[in-house]
Design goal:
The complex is a heterodimer of chains A (233) and B (217). Chain A has 233 residues and is of the alpha/beta class. Helix content of chain A is 36%, strand content 24%. Chain A contains nine helices and twelve strands. In chain A, a hairpin with a 2-residue loop joins strand 11 and strand 12. In chain A, 47% of the residues are buried. Chain B has 217 residues and is mostly helical. Chain B is built from nine helices and no strands. The A-B interface holds A 56, 58, 77-79, 81-82, 86, 88, 90, 92-94, 96-99, 102, 105-107, 109-110, 112, 115, 118-119, 136, 138, 140, 154-155 and B 1-3, 5-7, 9-11, 13, 122-125, 127-128, 145, 149, 152-153, 155-156, 159, 163, 195, 198-199, 201-208, 210-211, 213, 216.
């Protein structure tokens, strides 16, 4: 079982000109995430994305530690990123290569496979996600849902044990959102995701509501969704 | 976003002689095109015009042999048209029509030749090739993977920037600001910087560029 332990003094951005006070984008928090499906919900700008970025060392806490399976993200960032896959809201910023096949192959380069093995494995991964027919299409020609699935496939190609998703369905239509739900439901990985999709959130085991840069509610996901709905009014 | 942005340098699957040719042979041909176009005018302007024109015709023919559509050839030239006109005008003014033609033809021939290389070589193979070129420099601190990734990112960014120009032009036109240089250029800069930041963050998240860990050598 994966273990994510955050004991931080929050995240602050120093003033641009070096004077004045730092801006707090996430307040101090102490939380352990062990559940298989965890939803992070809250308003835009509340600190959800910052919390997620702490989990693979994209953002480091101003003080304190974030440990993923015992590894500190500050001192073992590269090792943490090997085990934590991250899917962004906009897949186009994540898909580096011109085609889905090449992008999945890029993920696999780290595994030092032969060219043939890399190609075979990339093709089988795309096939598993129903993307074979798009393998050599331009990423610009894919629909939003196809891009998001491609980004997911590229991240899962290297078999991370934890998957972090930052509002994965925000740019998707209803059909593609449903498809994404189905894909996520079948994954063996621990999944931590921020979302505005309250149905998706309610289906998780645990829910964190982020409000004003702090965890305002932490409990069963369904209760977190209810709490969030009430707080919005 | 940027749905109309096309891949200028994307791979097109096929089975032409260029698709089957080894990458290093294509690179040598590209180098030959560049050297012929750049070096021949140094001997004489007339010879330069003759050779560059011949190379340009050969590059266009090679485009067809590679099975690439005319549209692709035109797109490669279209994005340079403004610069080519400016360069041609300057060269004509300074050195006359023969030099103007030679310079423009040299640029177009070289771009078409590089277009054939990228269109007939999968990016993955291109990365391996670039990595192999840089590998001897590893002892001096060069990182072949990082180098080839940088080139891939550059290729990947071209359609984004073209798309950004197009989107911003449309937005400026919708607001009646099509003649406002600031309205047509500043958002492109902001979008491009934002894209670079997002791409950098995505690369970091994927561990691309991270050092190899023990046991991964």
């Amino acid at each position: 079982m994966n273990s994510i332990v955050l004991e931080t003094a929050g995240v602050e951005i120093p003033p641009v000109d070096g004077t004045g006070t730092a801006k707090t984008i996430l307040r101090p928090l102490s939380v352990t995430l062990n559940e298989q499906r965890i939803a992070v919900i809250g308003a835009n700008g509340s600190g959800k994305s910052t919390l997620l970025r702490l989990l693979n060392g994209l953002v480091l806490p101003s003080a304190g530690t974030v440990r993923v399976n015992g590894l500190d993200t500050r001192t073992h960032g590269a090792a943490v990123r090997r085990s934590v896959g991250f899917v962004f809201t906009d897949p186009l910023s994540q898909l580096v290569m011109p085609t889905p096949l090449e992008d999945v192959e890029l993920s696999l380069r780290r595994l030092k496979l032969s060219k043939r093995e890399r190609r075979d494995r990339a093709e089988s991964i795309l096939a598993a996600y129903g993307l074979s027919h798009l393998a050599e299409s331009s990423v610009y020609e894919l629909s939003g849902g196809e891009r998001q699935l491609t980004a997911l496939a590229a991240v899962l190609a290297v078999d991370p044990s934890i998957l972090v998703l930052d509002e994965p369905s925000t740019l998707l239509d209803l059909r593609n959102t449903k498809l994404l739900h189905e894909r996520l439901a079948g994954l063996p990985q621990q999944v931590v995701m921020s979302t505005h999709d309250l149905d998706l959130a309610a289906a998780c085991e645990r829910g964190l509501v982020i409000e004003d840069a702090r965890i305002a509610f932490d409990g069963p996901a369904a209760a977190a969704v209810d709490w969030y709905r009430e707080s919005v009014g | 976003m940027r749905g109309h942005a096309h891949l200028v340098a994307g791979y097109i699957a096929g089975n032409s002689p260029f698709h089957r040719m080894a990458l290093w042979r294509k690179a040598v041909l590209l180098l030959a095109v560049a050297v012929l176009c750049l070096a021949s005018p140094a001997i004489s302007v007339t010879l330069g015009v003759f050779i560059t024109t011949a190379v340009l015709i050969a590059a266009i023919a090679a485009h067809r042999v590679a099975g690439l559509p005319w549209g692709r050839l035109w797109r490669a030239v279209r994005i340079m048209v403004v610069f080519l006109v400016l360069i041609a005008a300057y060269q004509w003014w300074q050195h006359g029509p023969a030099t103007a033609w030679q310079v423009v033809a040299a640029i177009v021939a070289t771009v078409l030749a590089s277009n054939i290389l990228t269109a007939t070589t999968p990016v993955d193979e291109l990365l391996d090739g670039l990595g192999a070129v840089v590998r001897p420099l590893e002892r001096f601190g060069a990182d072949p993977e990082r180098f080839s990734l940088t080139v891939a990112l550059m290729l990947r960014s071209i359609p984004f920037v073209i798309g950004a120009f197009s989107d911003v032009r449309d937005a400026a036109r919708a607001r009646g600001l099509e003649r406002n240089l600031m309205a047509r250029s500043l958002p492109v800069v902001i979008a491009t910087v934002g894209y670079a930041r997002a791409t950098g963050e995505a690369l970091a998240a994927r561990g691309l560029g991270d050092p190899e860990l023990p046991g991964e050598q």
